[in-house]
Write the structure tokens for this entry.
Amino acid sequence: MRIEILCTGDEILTGKTINTNHSHMARRFGEVGLTMHWGTIVGDDRPSLVEAFKLAAKRADAVIVNGGLGPTIDDLSQEVAAEAAGVDLVLDENWLARMEDFYTRRGRVMPPNNRKQAMLPEGAEFINNPIGTACGFAIDIDGARFFFTPGVPREMRRMIDEQVIPRLLEMSGLKVVTRLKRFHSFGIGESRADQMLQGIEDLAPNGGVKLGFQAHYPQLETKLAAQAASEAELDALLAPVEAAVREKLGTFIISEDAQSLEGAVIDALVERGETLATAEMFTGGAIAARFVPKDGAEDPFLRGVVSRDLGQMCHAVGLDETVAAQGLTAETAMAIASALRDQSGAGHALVVLIELDDGADKIEFGGTINVGIADSGGVIARTARMLGGRDWVRLGATDLGIDCLRRRLQGLPVDERIDFEKR
Amino acid sequence: MRIEILCTGDEILTGKTINTNHSHMARRFGEVGLTMHWGTIVGDDRPSLVEAFKLAAKRADAVIVNGGLGPTIDDLSQEVAAEAAGVDLVLDENWLARMEDFYTRRGRVMPPNNRKQAMLPEGAEFINNPIGTACGFAIDIDGARFFFTPGVPREMRRMIDEQVIPRLLEMSGLKVVTRLKRFHSFGIGESRADQMLQGIEDLAPNGGVKLGFQAHYPQLETKLAAQAASEAELDALLAPVEAAVREKLGTFIISEDAQSLEGAVIDALVERGETLATAEMFTGGAIAARFVPKDGAEDPFLRGVVSRDLGQMCHAVGLDETVAAQGLTAETAMAIASALRDQSGAGHALVVLIELDDGADKIEFGGTINVGIADSGGVIARTARMLGGRDWVRLGATDLGIDCLRRRLQGLPVDERIDFEKR
């Protein structure tokens, strides 16, 4: 089945807004086994829309149109759809009532131009938008099925997942239940993960599981996209493959699905009623910033200290110059961790020291990272050297530090070699 | 003149890579007065490329093709261009020699398949790529001018600015020297800035200056895109408009061109040989993280403290419970700023306290921000209330704090009302 995405709007065409809607939709389609054929971007311009609808209808079986469903004069999607399908626009009374209710519940009166959003081409299939005033719809134009979706990303995402993908899968004759299982890991590069997981798709009885990766340096997302005839069959398909991923990636897995590395750490602390303090140098607050804004981090996160200067950092945690004179070593990281733990009263103290190379930033530029962790079980350290330029070192050190803490909390070794370190 | 952008590659089509190349090119075109007409995305697929070239040639005067110039088998742009133009591919000896030299200087031997990158359609105009092995070229197809550009963003960006835009401007008959002047402001929303700057384009003698905005909450970028026959004429055109922007946006301007807010603060500190310490709550290290990783921030940035808990924060800067008992007030912010300045030995101390609303995150969710600054001139405070949800409050408070420090360093009032605050 040939699928096209047609993104509309001057903001997208002129580059004012980056077209993340195309990439999100296309990626989701790929994850459920649907193949993209073409993408088009046109502005809020009637002749371009008419022409784009005509061309897409000729090439594709299904066309996802995004944007142009708003209340203003330059939102043309319904009108042009009706024209292209050769029908009139008619008022969808149900949607109008839903919109009016939507406003009433917020203590407001619906502006009259929102009524336009309830005008749909005659005979179109209504597609629900539970979180906005732009409903979607589907209609046949020149033999292709057109799906109209809102431009607001969160409304589009939900409609694509809940409404459009099931319809596309049905059209395509593909099995209709899908699931995306995600594993997040730290310390394994994409190509090595690819090697380590070679052949695991075959573990699913009768196939139906597709392995994919998405690198967000320094983390890697491993995705299992599955489709089957029923939820029970999905469970059966995925169980052996999930087990294999857990076994192969093992201690490198930091979390699954919507959970994050810092979320896993905070949850572990909250569960035990324990607390954390951090001290960091060139990561410059990035470690603290991963924890602090999270809902629920008020209780476990007690204190963070940031300094580029070791003397300042030692002073901030109540240590004297003799410690700073040791330089940026594992011993210093351990001493600061102990002092920070005592001073802050936190159950766990995480310290990430970085000694940057001298000279200009370039790809060979590196840093030596010393992580120190103090808790009721004692004080430990982890040393790693990373290359790749200033930003790369900073990003790598941030996750290395948080991951050491995760490992320590989970009783795993903190010194397993990672792919990003140079020995 | 009708301009189209055609982005090629499976990574873009399937959404694995977000299509930032389209948005960058389109934005740059708009900034020099060129108008976008259509955008297309196709994969590394010969029939799709042939069809896309044919359609674009029919619609447009100029087509910018991006991607497909690499050395591998799935890079098809040169081949399909030659086919569409009805000519053969011929070896560009100059470019081959340049590529070989490129490898030799890095102590490597050019892999044989890179030779493919020097094969250009017969009669094509060579377009230089000073930083990569994928050269560009231009050729007429069915009456439209096609420009082929590399998919690697930094190579594409340079080629668009230095090579493609001048050719497009010449084709369009537009004046050929262009300049983009940028102002960054904090505290003024896009619609108000638009009102405040109404009519300033008319200050340029004979026109030629176009005003535009790009919002990066909470900052706003105000852009003046100018075109003229010469650099001297550009200076003359821009001078009165730049002066008007500086006058109208006044103290809200934080920096110009490539300078950032935190860069302006660090430069001011370095220039005076002075130092900074910070203390923050819900911004969670985001304020420190803006300063610390910057090259040159080692000297001025002494120390940052992060805590969600006021008692912890007071303890960290050596204050007792009586201060914490005052709550999150302007007085508390001033007391912490003074204590932090004394304790760290920094010349300037910046404290940003936030009292978040209770309850679930939503658009009406807000926070009350108290900024305290201590320096040799005394201690001051600034209070503001912001709404818009947790993330919005955190982003707004981060810039509010840093901007108060900029204002203080520049001798400007720190309590000018900003558009994002609710009183």
